Task: structure prediction
Amino acid sequence: MASIRELHEQIINKERSAVEITQEALNRIQELEPKLHSFLTVTTEQALKQAQAVDAKVAAGEEIGILAGIPIGIKDNLCTKGIVTTCASRILENFVPPYESTVTQKLADAGGVMVGKTNLDEFAMGSSTENSAYQVTANPWDLSRVPGGSSGGSAAAVAADECVVSLGSDTGGSIRQPASFCGVVGMKPTYGLVSRYGLVAYASSLDQIGPFGRSVEDAAILLSAIAGYDPQDSTSLKVAIPNYAANLKSDFKVGKKLRIGVITETFGEGLDPEVEAAVTKAIQQLQELGAEIHPISCPSFRYGLPTYYIIAPSEASANLARYDGVKYGLRSPDADNLLSMYTRTRSQGFGAEVKRRIMIGTYALSAGYYDAYYLKAQKVRTLIKQDFEKAFETVDVLISPTAPTTAFRAGEKTTDPLSMYLNDLMTIPANLAGLPGISLPCGFDSKGLPIGLQIVGKVLGEEQLFQVAYAYEQSTNWHLQKPKMA
Ligand code: GLN
Result:
C-alpha cells in the first residue's frame, strides 16, 4: 500500500475512494492471515462503514484530514467500544468494552479506518508475541521467526502491508523491538504525551501508546493524531502538539551541529556482530550527514533489566488484581465458593507468563521484601534517569541498536524466560526514564532479516527524534525494502 500522503492525495483527487483503499487492505488481510496471524479480530463491516463516511464527505466537497480513509491496525489491548478487546488473554476472551480508548476515538474522529485488532503477547508481557493465548504471529520476512513483541501483530501487519499504519504500546520496548524485527518504524513517545485512557494497564508508570509506520513520515503523522492532553488520564501532559510530519526537514542540516551520543554500554558482549556492523555503519552515515558523534557512557544501564523486571511485574500484579471473575470477562463455572471462583478463574484465565509476573510482583511488594526489591528498584530507576540527564548535557540524542539480535525462531526462547527478557536490554532504559525512543530500519543481516537502529531523545524531544530519523532514512534505501509476501 502507498504512504499516508500518497493515499490522501488519491482520495482528495478522487483517483481512488476510501472504500477501494480499505477493500485493498481487507483483501490483503484475507490473503495473508492464514500464514501471518497478525490480527485477532478483523472489523470488516465497521471499516467499510468508516470508509464510506469519508467518501461521502469527499463527494459533498467537504475537507478531510490527512488520516481520513487510511487503513489502521489497533493493538488488541486498546479498548474499542462494542468490539471485543482480548489483550490476547483467555480471561478477556469475551470482553466487549463499553467505552472507547482516547487514541482510537481520536483516530475515528480523524476519519481513520480501523481494519482490525492486532495480536500481542498476553497483556503485553513478552518479546515475541508467542505469549498470545490465541495464535502465534509470524515474521513477514521469515515465517518461521517471531515478529518480536509484545506489539508483534501491529508490526507484522504494517510490514506485510495489511494496513498502512498501526498502534502499539511500549512498556519496556514493545513498539521498538518488533519494529526492529519487522523492518518498520516504531516510536515510543515521552511518558504522558499520549493518553493511556482505555489502554489496558500492564505497568502504568511505564506504558505508552505509539505508532508503527513503514516510513518516519507515516509514524510522525500518526503520532500527531493521537498525542495531546486528556483529562481522563491523570498522567497526561498539558503541552502543545507539533505537526511532526510538517517539521521533518527543518533541523538536521550540515553545519547545524547535531550532537549524537553513542551509548557505549549497548555495544560489545551479547550484541550480534551483524547488528553491530549495521548500527556502526548507520552512525557513520549520520556523521556524513553532518552530525557530531560522541561516545557516551551510561553506567547504570546495566541495571536496567533487573530494575524493570521488579517494577513492571510489581505494577502488573496490582493492575491485574481486577480480573477476579466478578467485574470482567471470564468466570470459572466450576467453583463452589467465592474464593475458589477467584482462584479458578485466574488459574484458567491467565497464561503461564502472566502468572509468573503476578507472582514475581506480589513477592517483590510483600512486607519484608518491599524495601529490598521494589524500593531498591525505584532508587536504581532514578540512577538510570540521572545517567540520561547527564548524557543530555553534552548531546542532543542517543543512539544504540534497538535489540541485540535480529528476529529469532519461534519456539527458540519460550522455555527460557531470562533469555527472552534479554531482548529488552536496550529499550528498557527509555521507559524507566519516561523518554521518547524510535526504532527505524538500518540494514539486514546475512539471513535477510531487518536490523533496527534506536534513537532516544530528551523529554518531549519527539520533533527532533523524527528529524534525525528522517534525515537518516532519506539517505538510505532500507525503508523501501519489503518482505516477499508484501
Ligand atoms: N518485553 C517486555 C516485557 O515483557 C516489554 C513488554 C512491553 O513493552 N509491553 O515486559
